[in-house]
């Protein structure tokens, strides 16, 4: 009841219209400059530079070292911490401006509460750097997000100060609530559980589920809503909702301007009455109503059963510290929502000025904020996808694009610039995005629902129940499939092939190169008889030279075709025949006939020395190199390389043919156990190909473990999925006279924390 009435409140908020441009209250006002702004708040420059020494920060290794500080020293600590963060991230890269925005909050929370006994749960935890610096990990920042280093997110095994691991959003309120209920069931002396959640992360459904339940259970906990007016990762993307990220709640809270409500702490003390039993409340009713007048912004949260405080200036330590102390010392069991307003990138002008607020950065120059750019790489697969989708949308007015708060990451920013009215940013709401797409498909639109592989995990039942069972032609575009590098285990897109492969009638494809990506976008656009999945990794295109020399493409005019063409659903392709022949440059279709498929070079070779590599996705290039190297290493070996293109439906004819002609089949993919290799093996088994025991089969998949932060290359090294691993596998499997019982899984580097 409470839940739906609050949702109604959101929906019925004046002017509520999901796609109306969001009104925006403009800059956040600070309370009296004298109390809130310090002389360090707005450095002038460029060049920007920090303090030459950090005496207070040097004296604080753990939160208990802060307890003796006075307000002036706390402010100094915040200043030193901010510059420590700027200096650290300038050398490693990482998430940046979200941490800058919570410097004062972090200082205030650690000053008022006592971790690790008290729990502070950072939602997403991309803003946890200052927290890590104040909890014994300042000296580890040179290793941030690198192999063997500290994580860019909170992680329980890294520190007892990391109450809860994260990386994906909107989980903090549920986790805090679970901890709070457990503490009270276990009769713990203290029960302080604080969830810190951004106005972006609070758009995720879980946050509402938890708030609804918290009010009902009367869990004692504090939710700090860190409201910086940025719901999506900011890219200034045009969408059907305008350039502001679409969230009615954000529009609503941004109308709540920080004034001076809590400068007089008597006001706050009066409003605290609502935390006490009702008879006390009655006495103070009129005062209470007055207090309520100051906090009208809390209506939505109050309907969910929260005691609402705010909004207050989240950069104002003098205001925040006493409020947090009062909340800590209240013995109420009512959940509290403390609404703070902050500025993303606060205190570092280049971040505040940047269109993306310097959300995630590479190394940069502190004096100017200019990021060190690597040498001009080929276009990213993301941008190639976006441009292919623009081509599809130009041909077909039914094509629309959907993102869940990741316009830049998914290429929807590029698409949105061309087709703003056909681009929808729904907030951090993957479940909603999928079902929203399903609804659009019911009406005949062709929705491309563009969500990272890892975040699609959130929308799983929606994929099964709303899309697949109803056979609706939703195109699910999973960028960042495979390992992703420095974000680490929470962000790898390893599981999609396993979790989607088991869903009946889903078409699942994965391109091996940038031209295939374009072709598959067109394939998705053209196929309207059911749902499709297109998954591809974080990466860049190979460029025309490599496509010609390694893959064997023969392009007219020596250029990659600008526009993709649909390919046949469920049809793979042979890329390389024994002897190094590249099949793509054999023009005659008669060359596809069974007898000549093997190529002349393998004639006369023993079947047990004939190897087929069947690849799905961009490991194909590694497979091609491995095939060339294996044949060079042993002239008795003949390797055929095929690109499956589809995991569902499998190209059964191709697999049968490979099994007939070869004694060994190796599958390669960028995915976990349970994916492509298992589907091929399952098919071979049921088809009888394994019955007479003369076919060896080796699936090469990501090992059954979590890959910590490292570069993508290092992760594929550890996973054993680079070309030399494939070649070693081939040699081991054909080695004459040597039994080849087990594929050696390379030793994983133990991460020291
Ligand atoms: C389930 C999920 N979807 C998408 C993301 C990607 N993501 C990381 S941070 C972020 C924006 C978070 O905004 P907010 O909570 O307001 O924090 P801010 O960075 O503004 O401080 C998004 C969309 C995610 N981490 N988890
Ligand atoms: C499966 O997909 C095909 C199109 O590929 C469609 O014709 C068929 O109806 C679907 N089956 C079910 C049970 O939805
Ligand atoms: C068929 O492939 C062979 C290489 O295997 C090539 O030499 C030949 O030219 C191709 N035939 C035609 C008609 O293109």
TrEMBL record:
Residues 1-18 form the signal peptide. Its cofactor is thiamine diphosphate; Mg(2+). It holds the Pfam family DXP_synthase_N. Pathway: Metabolic intermediate biosynthesis; 1-deoxy-D-xylulose 5-phosphate biosynthesis; 1-deoxy-D-xylulose 5-phosphate from D-glyceraldehyde 3-phosphate and pyruvate: step 1/1. GO terms for molecular function: 1-deoxy-D-xylulose-5-phosphate synthase activity; metal ion binding. SUPFAM superfamilies: Thiamin diphosphate-binding fold (THDP-binding), TK C-terminal domain-like. GO terms for biological process: glyceraldehyde-3-phosphate metabolic process; isoprenoid biosynthetic process; thiamine biosynthetic process. Gene3D superfamilies: 3.40.50.920, 3.40.50.970. It is an enzyme of class 2 (transferase). Homodimer. This is 1-deoxy-D-xylulose-5-phosphate synthase. It comes from Cyclotella cryptica.
């Amino acid at each position: 009841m409470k839940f739906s009435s609050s949702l109604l409140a959101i929906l019925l908020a004046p002017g509520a219209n999901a796609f109306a441009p969001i009104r925006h209250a403009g800059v956040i006002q600070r309370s009296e400059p004298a109390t809130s702004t310090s002389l360090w708040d707005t450095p002038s420059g460029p060049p920007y530079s920090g303090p030459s020494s950090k005496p207070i920060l040097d004296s604080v290794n753990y939160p208990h070292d802060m307890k003796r500080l006075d307000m002036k020293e706390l402010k100094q600590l915040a200043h030193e911490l901010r510059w420590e963060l700027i200096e650290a991230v300038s050398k490693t890269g990482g998430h940046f401006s979200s941490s800058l925005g919570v410097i004062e909050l972090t200082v205030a929370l650690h000053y008022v509460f006592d971790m690790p006994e008290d729990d502070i749960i950072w939602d997403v935890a991309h803003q946890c750097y200052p927290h890590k610096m104040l909890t014994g990990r300042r000296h580890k920042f040179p290793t941030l997000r690198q192999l063997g280093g500290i994580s860019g997110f909170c992680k329980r095994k890294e520190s007892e100060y990391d109450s809860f691991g994260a990386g994906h959003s909107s989980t903090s309120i549920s986790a805090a609530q679970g901890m709070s209920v457990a503490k009270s069931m276990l009769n713990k002396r203290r029960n302080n559980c604080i969830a810190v959640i951004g106005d972006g992360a609070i758009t995720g459904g879980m946050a509402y589920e938890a708030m609804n339940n918290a009010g009902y259970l009367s869990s004692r906990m504090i939710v700090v809503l860190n409201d910086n007016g940025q719901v999506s990762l900011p890219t200034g993307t045009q969408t059907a909702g305008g350039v502001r990220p679409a969230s009615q709640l954000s529009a609503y809270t941004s109308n709540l301007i920080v004034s001076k409500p809590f400068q007089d702490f008597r006001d706050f003390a009066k409003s605290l009455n609502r935390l006490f039993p009702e008879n006390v409340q009655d006495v103070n009713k009129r005062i209470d109503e007055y207090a309520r007048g100051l906090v009208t912004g809390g209506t939505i949260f109050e309907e969910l059963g929260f005691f609402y405080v705010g909004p207050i200036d989240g950069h104002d330590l003098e205001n925040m510290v006493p409020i947090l102390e009062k909340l800590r010392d209240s013995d109420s069991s009512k959940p509290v929502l403390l609404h703070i307003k902050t500025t993303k990138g606060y205190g570092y002008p280049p971040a505040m000025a940047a269109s993306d607020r310097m959300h995630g950065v590479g190394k940069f120059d502190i004096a100017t904020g200019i990021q060190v750019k690597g040498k001009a790489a080929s276009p990213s697969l993301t941008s190639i996808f976006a441009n292919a989708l623009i081509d599809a949308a130009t041909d077909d007015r039914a094509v629309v694009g959907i993102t869940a708060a990741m316009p830049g990451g998914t290429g929807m920013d590029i698409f949105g610039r061309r087709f703003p009215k056909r681009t929808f940013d729904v907030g951090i709401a993957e479940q909603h995005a999928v079902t929203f797409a399903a609804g659009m498909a019911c009406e005949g639109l062709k929705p491309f629902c563009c969500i990272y592989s890892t975040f699609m995990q959130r929308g799983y039942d929606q994929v099964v129940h709303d899309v697949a069972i109803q056979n609706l032609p939703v195109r699910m575009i999973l960028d960042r499939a495979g390992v992703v590098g420095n974000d680490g285990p929470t962000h790898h897109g390893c599981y999609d092939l396993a979790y989607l492969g088991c869903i009946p009638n889903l078409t699942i494809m994965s391109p091996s190169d940038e031209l295939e990506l374009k072709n598959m976008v067109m394939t998705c656009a053209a196929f309207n008889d059911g749902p499709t999945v297109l998954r591809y990794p974080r990466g860049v295109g190979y460029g025309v030279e490599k496509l010609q020399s390694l893959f064997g493409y023969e392009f007219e005019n020596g250029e990659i075709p600008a526009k993709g063409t649909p390919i046949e659903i469920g049809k793979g392709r042979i890329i390389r025949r024994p002897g190094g022949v590249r099949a793509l440059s054999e023009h005659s279709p008669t060359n596809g006939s069974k007898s000549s498929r093997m190529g002349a070079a393998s004639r006369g070779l023993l079947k047990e020395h004939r190897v087929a590599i069947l690849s799905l996705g961009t490991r194909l290039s590694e497979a091609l190199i491995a095939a060339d190297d294996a044949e060079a290493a042993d002239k008795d070996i003949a390797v055929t390389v095929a690109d499956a293109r589809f995991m569902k439906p499998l190209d059964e004819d191709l697999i049968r043919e490979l099994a007939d002609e070869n004694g060994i089949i190796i599958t390669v993919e960028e995915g976990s156990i349970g994916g492509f290799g298992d589907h091929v093996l399952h098919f071979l088994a049921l088809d009888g190909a394994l019955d007479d025991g003369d076919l060896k089969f080796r699936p090469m998949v990501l090992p059954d473990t979590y890959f910590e932060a490292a570069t993508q290359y290092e992760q594929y090294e550890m996973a054993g999925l680079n070309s030399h691993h494939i070649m070693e596998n081939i040699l081991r499997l054909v080695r004459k006279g040597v039994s080849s019982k087990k594929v050696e899984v390379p030793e994983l580097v133990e991460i020291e924390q």
